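Incident log, structure service

09:12 report received: a user says their structure output differs between two submissions of the same chain.
09:20 pulled the input from the user's history:
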Amino acid sequence: MCSRSNKPILAPTFAAPREYFQPQTQAVAPDTLSIYAELRRSCHLKYPTHPQESQRLQALLDLNLLDSPPDSRFDAITNAAQTHFNSKSALISLVAEDRQWFKSKQGLAADETPRNVSFCTYAIAEEHYLIVPDALADDRFANNPLVRGEPFIRAYAGVILHSPGGYEIGTLCLLYDTPQTFSDDDIAILCKFAELAEALIQEDAAGSSASK
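09:34 re-ran on a clean worker, output below:
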């Protein structure tokens, strides 16, 4: 179970007006691109690695999701999560060998960031999810350039997404630029959003296997 709450949680539904789920398209500013390029070159932060990292990476590659075109189904989920939680950003992040790439994004211009500054690479090392109420008060992230500089991440909540074989390939996550508290109910609802994203990933993988 993703949630530690014993209270029943209703799964999020898509019974909202169409405009509620319209993906937000944002142009990537040249200065933003240069910032992330510089992070890749110069940042040497250490991060946890998965005990079965090579198998995990292969499972991600086998899904053919990295650098794939935008998908309105995933955008509907991140848009709904951003709206529900009133977060600055909502992302479906895939953690590759040296980067995290966003299959879907709301409220963030960049398509990817280096893995060594990624909160999500810490999340996939957890059992189910990672909650960071205040990044400046967390030794793992207090000096992270994405906390000290753009996009000024102050709080994070990410739930692990799995491949059909059970490998941790990424997260559905929320970003805030102010400290946040997350109740058990909040976490349970975020897990429901993640379950929707994971179901799409696994359904697509099953369909691809069946067509071979």
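09:41 both user submissions now match this output. Likely a transient worker issue. Closing.
09:42 reviewer note: DSSP finds six helices and six strands in the chain. The chain has one domain: 51-210.
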